[in-house]
């Protein structure tokens, strides 16, 4: 094993996914020298095993479903999907799991890339061990940013390793369509992957321990998605957990809490995430290995002057777009502190603001129908002590929805703070609603008064006219 002498940078970033890339981009733009450490592929989970491959897989599925709802077109799209073409399309969007383009981008901003396993080995110090054993010791004058993300969590079931279960990584990178697939879970990964593989020809069984799917959204979101999965041919079982799972002669055998025995070719566990902090040297600076990292609104780790935790590792919102937002805030905070500029925490919207706001976190679930939400659900708003009112409207009531799809089925809800008459949360469920959620995000993040929303006129005939129906329902009831 060889070791180079210590190399000093202003900032060292652990992890080169979208979050780490954005931290590096912002610190380099501020003129700070920046090193980025990556043990796998530059571009991270999102580029190769999550956002990009899953959406590439889902796009043909959703496009076919939409086409089948259009008179004059549905007859042309009645056949099965070309699974090999869909998988090839997915491979293209992952760059065939090669990161040359992402590396070139890092080069373009003059950030130095170190490949290998990075571990904190003391305050402001990261040691990178390459596959060939060579080590580089990097020191940070101003900040170390932990952007290592999260990994799929697996339940503690005896013999699970021998079963070789799928996690989100295998589900988005598989090269063959399994004849039978069991999906354990009821969240985003579970519902999206059930949608994909059912459409590609698998016989899918979804086992959800809770009362319904997508339990972090309004209840009707999970209900409509479950209804569509069942209509597509999937077997959806709620209130169901896995008691045991084995692989016998290549066949996966699942026994549920109801005593049912289910056979499959593969089983996907989509039952949560865990932080990738178990082997990054947290113990050398007095923190617990494998833990989520608590941060302030500038993304600096509680109790530290130099350590930042950005993206999934701080457990605030496990979403790529939110992690990238945090990265922009963290980069601004690091740059401000490095230059001695005080953070304007009392003015979060100011030109030099470097504090992250998490009141308006948007999310889209790319199932059929899509489910999109931002801010608080009705239950969350009530639990937080707000005096609120939920306004529900059938999305099919707007002309644009009927034009978008024959027999359009969907629902919208806005949660209104009755004291301030602003929106605390908005949820849409229906075909194509993912493109509606940014307007809702602006309304929630900007705390736009209901009286002013009346003057944001939706174009006719678009699905966005649902905003007018929601406001009318609030006024008239």
Automatic annotation (TrEMBL):
<keyword id="KW-0274">FAD</keyword>
<dbReference type="Pfam" id="PF02852">
    <property type="entry name" value="Pyr_redox_dim"/>
</dbReference>
<dbReference type="InterPro" id="IPR004099">
    <property type="entry name" value="Pyr_nucl-diS_OxRdtase_dimer"/>
</dbReference>
<dbReference type="InterPro" id="IPR036188">
    <property type="entry name" value="FAD/NAD-bd_sf"/>
</dbReference>
<dbReference type="InterPro" id="IPR001100">
    <property type="entry name" value="Pyr_nuc-diS_OxRdtase"/>
</dbReference>
<keyword id="KW-0285">Flavoprotein</keyword>
<keyword id="KW-0560">Oxidoreductase</keyword>
<dbReference type="InterPro" id="IPR050151">
    <property type="entry name" value="Class-I_Pyr_Nuc-Dis_Oxidored"/>
</dbReference>
<dbReference type="GO" id="GO:0016491">
    <property type="term" value="F:oxidoreductase activity"/>
</dbReference>
<keyword id="KW-0520">NAD</keyword>
<protein>
    <submittedName>
        <fullName>Dihydrolipoyl dehydrogenase family protein</fullName>
        <ecNumber>1.-.-.-</ecNumber>
    </submittedName>
</protein>
<dbReference type="Pfam" id="PF07992">
    <property type="entry name" value="Pyr_redox_2"/>
</dbReference>
<feature type="domain" description="Pyridine nucleotide-disulphide oxidoreductase dimerisation">
    <location>
        <begin position="361"/>
        <end position="467"/>
    </location>
</feature>
<feature type="domain" description="FAD/NAD(P)-binding">
    <location>
        <begin position="9"/>
        <end position="321"/>
    </location>
</feature>
<dbReference type="InterPro" id="IPR016156">
    <property type="entry name" value="FAD/NAD-linked_Rdtase_dimer_sf"/>
</dbReference>
<dbReference type="InterPro" id="IPR023753">
    <property type="entry name" value="FAD/NAD-binding_dom"/>
</dbReference>
<comment type="similarity">
    <text>Belongs to the class-I pyridine nucleotide-disulfide oxidoreductase family.</text>
</comment>
